[in-house]
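Hi everyone, sorry if this is the wrong subforum. Our group has a chain we'd like a structural model of before ordering constructs, and none of us has done structure prediction before. Sequence below.
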Amino acid sequence: MDNQIIIYRDDNFIASQCRSCNIPGYIILEPIENIYFLHNLNADSLNSLIVILAKVEEVICRTIKPENIYIAKFGEECLKVHFHIFPRTKEITEKYLKQHSNKNNLNGPQIFDWARREYKLTETHLSKKVIETANLLKINMYV
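Answer:
Right subforum, don't worry. Here is the predicted structure as tokens:
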């Protein structure tokens, strides 16, 4: 099952739709080089990293208009350096609030963890909506 949809690639980084969750616009950004800590990136890669993160965030904002975007680096399941660029859409927020009692307190890490479980891919392929959104993001990355 290789359903990778690349939205951006250069000599140092690749950004693609997350393949484990059916969440439109949930992007994983990772260096092409196998590294385990940011300090192992060369200076040029470190300098371009923030520019690419900002561009991906901007394209997600323009394309799907989320309420917020979370950007995180964990390295627990996959030790290789990678960033989760996660859009908290109105749909995700409403579904989360229906299931949780803390309606006045949106907690980014808790929502992110819940959404990764709630929208975990159970089929062999990403949904049509996720694929269409990823293709729009890819087009908009180069505009």
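For your construct planning: Helices lie at 43-64, 90-99, 108-118, 128-141. Residues 43-64 form the longest helix (22 residues).
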